[in-house]
Description:
Chain A contains twelve helices and no strands.
Amino acid sequence: MQSLRDYIRLYFIIEAQYIKARMQYRADFIISSIGMFFTSLVTLSVFWVIFDSVPDLAGWTLTEMVFIYAFYMLAISPMQILFDHFWQLRFHIQQGTFLKYYFRPLNMMFYYTSEMFDLKGLIQLVTGLILLIYAASQLHVDWTLSRIALLIMTLFSASLVQISMIVSAACAAFWIIDSYPVLGLAWKLREFSPYPMTIFDGAFRFAFTYLIPIGFVAFYPSQLFLRPNEVSSIVYFSPLIGIGLFAFTYWIWTKGVNSYTGTGS
Amino acid sequence: MRRYLAVLRGTAMVGLVYRFGYFFAILGNLLYIGIVYFLWRSIYQGRDTLRGLTFNETMVYIALGSTIFFLLKTYSDWIIHFEIREGIIATYLIKPMDFQTYALFAVLGSTIMNIFAISIPTVLFMIFVLKVSFATGIGLALFPLSFIFALVISFCIDFFVGLMGFYSESVWGISYVKEVILMFSSGALIPLQFFPDGIREILLWLPFQAVFHTPLMMVTKPKLELDTFIPMLGIQAFWAIALIILTRLFYHQAIKVLRISGG
């Protein structure tokens, strides 16, 4: 086993190589980045169209929704940038190329994850940051030092929730081979995380808070900044939820890795 | 014709292999319908109608939209791009088949499977479990025709984007942009009635609305006059024909730049 320092050093070496290789396809990077930017633009337009017909959504204004969406963009960026390789897990498992990850004296999840670094996700990160600053200034959010610390902490746990959702969905491939339907479902669900969870009733709200906690990707943590007085106490547990979910996902990954038998070729 | 039907049968059979996928598709679709139900309920907030649509009509529009999404999403762009990149396309070019017709029939195979495996079960679930009431009228009779136009248009758009793979390595970005524009401006995310007037007027002339909005209107407001439906079908027919011609011209241009090294 290596120490944490070795891993960090190794990560930078691997990523530097990867980025050099990707830079051969500069046009691809530019077009993909435009695509990424466009997606955010369209989601914002969806809000804009909705708010053209109604003044508020469950009591939330357009600017507040923009803040929540900006938080969401920042929260999903680590997944996009660092864990993008999990979209291909099903191909590696199907083709048998996943076997190679067993043969290095490294943590397998680390090694697998490090093989990809999604540059276009950086556009999402930057757009999210600009939007967040803009919406926050419109809403007069007072950025004290403790608020900034809170933002970083909540973003960290929110991105862990997001990472856990996609990674565990991808891990379904260990058992059902083609995990695309499960991944597609997780992807679809997460697109609803910037909406106020208060619009949901009963089973749906329970599920999105406790079972598939998309509420913790954006809405609940954003409340801390927008309406600190209305926050339910569960929001303060969000770091625990993020870390807990990631630990659970790691456990699923380990189970999957141990049960994989290759393709025989 | 028989050779194309064999292609159709082939892709339909592939669908059967991944039966588990259908289960998740239905589950995901029902979940999606549940979520948009809550979302639109909070948008309506007790109002009877918004922009000329009742809550029930909006639900029919969106729920059916996400159900026919599985039929109208052809994945042709991804498939063709993959075939170009891997050089597999050469094996199709030497066969005595027209490549575009081949690609269309490959799509039809999976579409037919999806009608039975995803769309019909979902619609039955909507009627009998969720008690969504569908209105009846002339529009319902026109829906199949409108749907066929929509499928052809959607296929042509995807085929066109797929052909860009001849020129660029970067079909991910182009496909993604196409996907996002299509979803937004076709009414698949929000009924076009909700758009500001000026923008809607423009969108109604584009091919994207012909993919979702037109067929969905046939089911949402089936009682409208035939005079309203005929021009809508006319625009669909125009785009279907225009895009077929356009993609064929583009194909004959694009195929010239193809170089496959060995294989």
